[in-house]
């Protein structure tokens, strides 16, 4: 049976927008590692991606929380302007054209946007204001 981890409530991501979260995972050596992700929404569809640009691996939101192009039609990287489709994460213009964001499987469960079968280090770090910090309070992910 799949394990779910609720990241946020569905209403916390506006239609046509995206939000970033920083979770914590264990690396292969058992060390806690920051795991920035983003959840994008179009109508009733939610899309999860790792918040790492395929161009240089940095976060898309140069300004924290800003994931959209000026018109709000596409996900964009604030660093060099790559644009990505909401629904596929495919980069169609920019220095990583032809590559794609790494998708994260999501399910909607009882009004929550949930990750499926992702082994989190311990706690999420959702309460951290500075998204560059590693979560301090850790609990076992479920
Ligand atoms: S790092 Fe994203 S376009 Fe260069």
UniProtKB/TrEMBL annotation:
Coiled coil: none annotated. Residues 20-115 form the Rieske domain. SUPFAM superfamilies: ISP domain. One of its GO terms (molecular function) is 2 iron, 2 sulfur cluster binding. It holds the Pfam family Rieske. The keyword DNA-binding does not apply. Keywords: 2Fe-2S, Iron, Iron-sulfur, Metal-binding. The keyword Translocase does not apply. InterPro entries: Rieske_2Fe-2S (IPR017941), Rieske_2Fe-2S_sf (IPR036922). CDD domains: Rieske. PANTHER family: PTHR40261, RIESKE DOMAIN-CONTAINING PROTEIN (PTHR40261:SF1). This is Rieske (2Fe-2S) domain protein. The lineage of its organism: Bacteria, Pseudomonadati, Pseudomonadota, Alphaproteobacteria, Hyphomicrobiales.
């Amino acid at each position: 049976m799949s394990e779910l981890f609720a990241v946020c409530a569905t209403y916390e991501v506006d239609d046509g927008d995206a939000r970033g979260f920083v979770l914590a995972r264990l690396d292969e050596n058992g060390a806690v590692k920051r795991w920035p992700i983003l959840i994008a929404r179009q109508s009733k569809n939610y899309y999860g991606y790792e918040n790492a640009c395929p161009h240089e691996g940095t976060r898309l939101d140069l300004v924290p929380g800003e994931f959209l192009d000026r018109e709000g039609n596409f996900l964009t990287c604030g660093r060099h302007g790559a644009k990505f489709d909401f629904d596929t994460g495919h980069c169609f213009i920019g220095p990583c054209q032809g590559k794609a964001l790494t998708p994260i499987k999501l399910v909607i469960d009882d009004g929550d946007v949930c990750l499926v079968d992702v082994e989190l280090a311990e706690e999420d770090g959702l309460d951290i204001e500075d998204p560059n910090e590693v979560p301090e309070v850790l609990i076992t992910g479920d």
